[in-house]
Structure to design on (641 residues):
């Protein structure tokens, strides 16, 4: 998942700023062994602009050793005035926007449409059964539609989103249609929310559409997840929530997850994420290479 | 997750460490080494080149410093192996650098009175290399041109005697010495380089070709390699972004005035990563020549004085080595971009 920024003479810029920056980015991640990228759906426009078409963009990516855009993260401004999953009145607009993304993303090889299944926790609370049911209805409907495009709708539970606790997760997956709604396992987000990602994967493995493997050094013990205005980068307790795999203070048990994946015969893509890896002086390329080292040295042998 | 494309064959590839430590501070802690070498291994490079240095902030600069930080050379090698690095292929040693440990402000191969001390210190690094699975002690054979001018025959004789002694010590350990002629070296011309090599017969000493340094000094690197290939014992690969067209190697303190400050043209960075800009070095041509002329040994890739984040330059170079240069050197078809 490419949260990257490229250091330039103009300061940090998106790698989608130019073909040259994107070329360098693709070479760097291909060099350490990655075969696909995940990105946000708001990059579709610039991809088309830089290459003329998404098919031409994919061709360029393949020439650098990157096969596809595996997943698009759906970037929606959740607001109950127009789009938020727990408000049924906004569902039609959200459905049409998701369909627009399906229509406009052909050519990249996308397999997953990743969504945050509920709004920010403080916008949703109190989190009632009816609100969770509303979310389940929306994503079941959208998930059915995206499968018509060959793309799975996968729900990714940020620690600050409205469906985050073990009980909320249980209800959401019970009430959403298992044919259309997939689970996306973001290891760090669950640990921060004090949910065991291995146990959750064990329970939802048949619905698991993929992974964001990243680590954390902290569990949210003081309710940062519901703190206004922001939990992700403005929590007073924790300047940096997310870390690459392979740091000494990491809390995620990745080998246990891999053993569970092997036990359940998982076959498919595994994503690695470097979310805000530049906080505190680190950087995206180094974090990516260190995670690649960890996969080869620690995780790959579990599957081999 | 694709394994890194294989790059090692008869020619082995490694990566220098100089870009991780651009100044005195930084890259002094073990956890910094660990991350750097994991990045190196993740990029497919199984060996590194160290830079000789002195003082407490240079923990990898000499054998006693390594022992202080890792217990012993064997302990260091064991940790490297744990991180995916199988060998220290080479060590770069410039006798002209000041040394806290040896209490001098720079030694010169032109001064015969200093030869014994250069040999003693070089032997320390040769011992390190032997213990760390290495092959080549890369040395700066002569001071900068601005310090000494072009050496005459007598000066070349003195320089040759210095490195012949070091080469003898290398040979005793099954190692070689590579003369690294850089862009400021007193050895400006191909004739001067050849003259020095002629004074140093044998297989224990030869030329270490640093592609960028020689290109900045005005050499055609591929032609130079073809001319001197029988004496080439080591390569350092990095690109050059500009030539020293104004002859500013003559400036006093050209290391600062030209290389760091950019000279009159204010060149922002003389060096560049492979295939990332209008570089001067024909790397596919050089790789083809290496294949054709049967070079056997190490090629060390460098991101010398690279901008932060240093991992980015290494990863960019790794891609080009994996997909273009290593296949050419191995006689395969490269995946040219």
């Amino acid at each position: 998942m490419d949260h990257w920024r490229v250091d330039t003479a103009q300061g940090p810029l998106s790698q989608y700023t130019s073909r040259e920056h994107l070329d360098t980015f693709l070479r760097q991640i291909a060099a350490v062994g990655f075969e696909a990228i995940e990105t946000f759906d708001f990059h579709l426009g610039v991809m088309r602009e830089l290459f003329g078409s998404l098919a031409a963009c994919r061709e360029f990516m393949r020439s650098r050793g990157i096969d596809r855009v595996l997943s698009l993260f759906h970037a929606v401004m959740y607001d109950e005035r127009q789009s938020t999953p727990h408000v049924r009145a906004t569902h039609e607009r959200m459905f049409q926007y998701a369909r627009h993304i399906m229509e406009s993303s052909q050519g990249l090889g996308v397999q997953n449409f990743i969504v945050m299944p509920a709004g920010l926790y403080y916008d949703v609370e109190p989190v009632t059964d009816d609100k969770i049911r509303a979310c389940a209805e929306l994503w079941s409907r959208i998930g059915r539609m995206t499968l018509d495009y060959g793309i799975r709708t996968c729900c990714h539970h940020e620690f600050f989103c409205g469906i985050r606790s073990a009980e909320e997760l249980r209800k959401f997956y019970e009430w959403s249609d298992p044919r259309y709604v997939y689970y996306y396992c973001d290891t760090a987000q669950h640990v921060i929310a004090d949910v065991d990602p291995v146990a959750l994967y064990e329970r939802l493995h048949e619905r698991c559409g993929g992974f964001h493997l990243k680590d954390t050094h902290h569990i949210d013990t003081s309710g940062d997840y519901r703190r206004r205005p922001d939990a992700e980068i403005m929590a007073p307790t924790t300047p940096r929530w997310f870390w690459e795999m392979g740091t000494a203070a990491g809390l995620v048990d990745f080998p246990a997850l891999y053993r569970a994946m092997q036990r359940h015969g998982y076959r498919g893509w595994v994503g690695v994420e470097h979310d805000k890896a530049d906080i505190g002086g680190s950087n995206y390329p180094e974090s990516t290479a260190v995670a690649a080292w960890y996969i080869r040295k620690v995780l790959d042998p579990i599957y081999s | 997750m694709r394994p890194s494309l294989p790059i090692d064959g008869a020619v082995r590839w490694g990566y220098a460490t100089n870009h991780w430590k651009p100044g005195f501070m930084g890259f002094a802690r073990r956890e910094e080494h660990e991350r750097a070498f994991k990045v190196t291994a993740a990029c497919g490079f199984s060996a590194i080149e160290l830079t000789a240095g002195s003082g407490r902030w240079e923990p990898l600069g000499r054998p006693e410093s390594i022992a202080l930080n890792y217990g012993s050379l064997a302990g260091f090698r064991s940790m490297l192996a744990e991180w995916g690095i199988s060998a220290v292929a080479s060590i770069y040693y410039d006798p002209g650098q000041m040394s806290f440990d040896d209490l001098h402000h720079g030694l010169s191969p032109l001064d015969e009175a200093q030869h014994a001390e250069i040999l003693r210190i070089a032997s320390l690094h040769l011992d390190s290399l032997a213990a760390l699975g290495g092959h080549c002690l890369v040395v700066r054979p002569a001071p900068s041109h601005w310090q000494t001018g072009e050496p005459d025959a007598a000066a070349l004789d003195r320089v040759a005697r210095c490195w012949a002694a070091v080469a003898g010590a290398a040979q005793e350990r099954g190692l070689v010495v590579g003369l690294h002629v850089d862009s400021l070296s007193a050895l400006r011309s191909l004739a001067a380089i050849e003259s020095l090599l002629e004074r140093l017969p044998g297989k224990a000493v030869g030329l270490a070709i640093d592609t960028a340094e020689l290109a900045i000094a005005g050499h055609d690197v591929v032609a130079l390699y073809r001319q001197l290939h029988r004496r080439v014992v080591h390569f350092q690969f990095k690109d050059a972004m500009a030539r020293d067209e104004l002859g500013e190697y003559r400036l006093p303190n050209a290391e600062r005035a030209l290389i760091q400050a950019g000279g009159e043209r204010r060149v922002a960075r003389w060096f560049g990563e492979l295939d990332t800009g209008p570089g001067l070095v024909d790397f596919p041509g050089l790789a083809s020549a290496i294949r054709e002329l049967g070079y056997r040994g190490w090629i060390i890739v460098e991101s010398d004085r690279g901008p932060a984040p240093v991992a980015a330059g290494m990863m960019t170079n790794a891609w080009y080595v994996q997909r273009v240069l290593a296949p050419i050197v191995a006689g395969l078809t490269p995946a040219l971009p």
Summary: The interface with chain B takes residues 6-7, 23-24, 27-35, 63-65, 246, 270, 283-286, 288-290, 292-297, 300 of chain A (CB under 8 Å).
